[in-house]
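Internal QA ticket QA-208
Title: Verify multi-chain structure generation after dependency bump
Assignee: T.L.

Test input:
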Amino acid sequence: MADLIDHKRRTRLEPDIFDLPQVRLRGRNVLALVLAPEFPMSDWFAAFDRQHKAAPGFFADRPIVADLRAAIQEGGPEAAALVLDSLGMRNLKLIGVEGVSARVLDGTPWERLATRLHGRDTALEAPDDETPSASDAKPEPPAPTSLLIDRPVRSGQSVVFGEGDVTIVGSVSSGAEVLAGGSIHVYGTLRGRAIAGLKAGVQARIFCHKLEAELLGVDQLYRTAEHWGAGLHGRAVQVLCDRGALRLTAFG
Amino acid sequence: MSQVMVVTSGKGGVGKTTSSASLGAALAQRGQNVVLIDFDVGLRNLDLVMGAERRVVFDFVNVVQGDAKLAQALIRDKRVDTLSLLPASQTRDKDALTEEGVEKVIDELREKFDWIICDSPAGIEKGATLAMRFADIAVVVTNPEVSSVRDSDRIIGMLDAKTRRAEAGERLDKRLLLTRYDPARAARGEMMKVEDVLEILAIPLLGIIAESPDVLTASNMGAPVTLHAPASAPAIAYAEAARRLLGEAVPFTAPGQRAGGGLFSRLFGRKAAAA
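Actual output:
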């Protein structure tokens, strides 16, 4: 679907030709639902209504494309407008049609629908049904909630794991960064940046064998090495949030 | 089995070209068939260091673009006949090289040579990534100095991500070549110590090349230091590094120290951390 970007500012009443902006067109992939009604229409629409009632949220506000090939094949071009009327009555957001030329819709309220669609079929998640099918029976394995890295994190690399803790068996180089939803554990030297608690908030902590970090943060609070000074440099340290402030304490 | 070796660093001016030439010459002197490829298109130096600048007719870009055959572009060294050079173009820039073209040239070179040494340009953009793309082994050249170490660390990260081997899930052999090392300054604390560099970079050590005026002299004479001044300390260090590349276990002796004693033998008696 093309998206016209509007020019934001106009400083003169009569724009100079050299002043006119270049209106840029962008392409965008949008997932639309394709409905292909077929004869006998009463049966098709009855089945559709039942499915719609079972999962009303599924169709709400989704772009719908009507594939009219089957309808026209059996009912001729007149069937196109009738089918579209029936779909329209069900409050579906029709954006285009397939299998019919624009001429057929001329003069009908549906002539504004796009007929030139370039699309490919793609996988769709099934709507929640009252009768779960056999293929739904297998449960998805739970998503991992911790990440283990057993090699050094090199300068310029960025480890981002929003779902939980990150454990690194190795060092984190200067110029590298680790961002975790939970806590960060570095069994090595922490030289770069570490920010914990993106999801877990102030409960998260950062642990390291040797502190040489440039920047540390938990939840929304962060500090640079300049702040915590040289006293903790090179020591095993944990970083936590304590009464609204970032606190670093050495082990042992 | 031919080996493609990339000599890279991230930081500029640390000794990649010097080391490519010296290691290449040392390997060739041990009977290996070696070709050096200059990947620094537009800022070529390898031909100068090898003393071949007046014999360049066709270059790497010509071969990649099909304007010349590989045999026309290769320049055989006059001093060691198992050593050849594929120079870079000086008038073009790195965009003239394509991955497919480079792969084709390297595949052709694999048939004739035991060692294909790719002298990488500085930086992390296309020139450097292309030079490392097809590597079987990487030599990371680093000065014992903070910026060089950080840049080398970055390059090591890229070696683990942007090479064919890394993408295939294989481990790329990476070795550290510490150059321009000054043991006196390191002892005074003015320069990073070897163990500090190794702790940060965590790859096995290939060699330590001491800072020496012999290197610059050789460069200006148009010969790798291993050919120009084979008895000098850097030449010996490069020769030992070449032997390590060939699989020999050569013990490390610190530059400026007597062999067989002291901190370094104790330190390098054990292997440095593997990558």
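Spot checks passed. The two ends of chain B are 23 Å apart (CA to CA).
Status: verified.
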